[in-house]
Input
Amino acid sequence: MRRTIAVLAGLVLAFTGGACGGQAEPAAAPTPSGRAAASTPAERPAAGDHELTLRHGGVERSYLLHAPPGYDPARPAALVIALHFFPGTGADMRELTGLDARADRENFLVAYPDGRHGGFNALICCGSADDVGFLTALTAHLVDTWRADPDRVYLTGISNGGDLSFRVAVEATGVFAAIGVVSGGYSGPLTEPDSYVPKRPVSVITFVGGQDQYAGIFHDGLRTWQRRLGCQPVAGRKPAAPAGLSRADARCADGSDVTVWSLPEMSHSWPGATAGTLADPDASVTATDLIWEFFAAHPRRT
Output
């Protein structure tokens, strides 16, 4: 994996709490219907790339929004919210994932929020912002103003953003239909109670690199998630994984699905990405494509 020393240090901080203050008080669980935030003045839904802000908890939060050429405000569109690594920005996540190109082909919206001071208040770190509440408010705004389809709202993230995806899946009840987690996990003090699981179905697709120093933590968390939700292996549901990789599919008692991709040669990175700090262009699969295909097959279960 090709990474700078600065990013390595940031990732270590991200998983140890470090200077991120990851053990600050947890954010209060939001209500999906909360709409206290205010949108950017004169915001007009239209195709293209938009730099927007949303006020939440007395703080102006920034995010990028991509609306595909075929976007029509009169027709509900699926929404993917993509969460960056620490330290990073929404622009970094846009470059890494290449989601805009996929959105243009499949006609869905993509939002790239900026974490406070380069990070999100996830399960291990970073900071004390109410990021669960912010993402819930952002979703409500995009449903109300941009006509995102509330039954097709999805969350994806890498590293710190992947950790937050698991947290949001649990705490933002009924908001997200599925999450896509790359090089991130379900671990930390918040996850210790057996009751810390989604109260409504949230399907999961995740990618774990065998050379990632946190691979053991990620796999342990996935086993805990599946045990708590009563997930059972399902064989032969999808095409086999490429040689050297493994794919495991499970169906949970609440009707949600879990797909785990294990890539023995990958480190802490985004498989198939060709640009960006955590890109792994030599992986045998492309996470962006597989995540979208999984999302498209998993609208919200009621």
In short: The first helix runs from residue 5 to 16.
